[in-house]
Amino acid sequence: MPVKQSDYEALLAEYSNRDAVIVLLKKHRAYLEMIPSMRRPGDSLLTIPLPIVRIRQAKPLTENNGITMTAVPETLRLPCDLAILTCDPEWKIKMGVEILVFMHRPQEDFSHLLSRWRQTQVLLDQDYEWLMPPDDQNLLSEGANRLYPLFVLFPETHQRIRRGLLGACLPFVEHTPDTINQEETSETLLPEIPPT
Fold first, then answer.
1. 150-170: pLDDT as tens digits
2. Which of 2, 18, 72, 180 is buried most deeply by CB count within 10 Å?
3. Which SS3 state, helix, strand or coil, does residue 193 take?
């Protein structure tokens, strides 16, 4: 059974929320440990669905005396589905870790999924800055020290994609449709503690 567009859209909408991203990172502990403050995880992460970056490329500019190089910005949408940027909750500044999430899209095979990551690597191998959401535009948005990919697969994802990601040593997690709902339900069903 192939991945449905509605499942992909629902997951993209879900992971646009910081709390859901924390649930996602709990599935890949190495990335969860990169969050600057586990006491304040909501203030330590910034999520950007379908992210856009401004790349500063050096372009030749001809003047009277010869050629000089000048930085010309180009704005591009990255081929990943979600960017997770880490932030210092005290100083409200962006940290150097950036996690790029690639969700398995409907009718996408291994080569297409891997190509999206490779294309992102090529694009971000230059000076760039993030176009930040309105509430976070005060954060310094320069590029990262290191990019970390995370692939999200569905139960319907073909086995060859899992084998390919394992062979390429790329981390992936499987989205189970009720994981987020179960965690939300268990949190809302906790008994209230009466005030003392």
1. 999 999 999 999 999 999 999
2. 180
3. coil
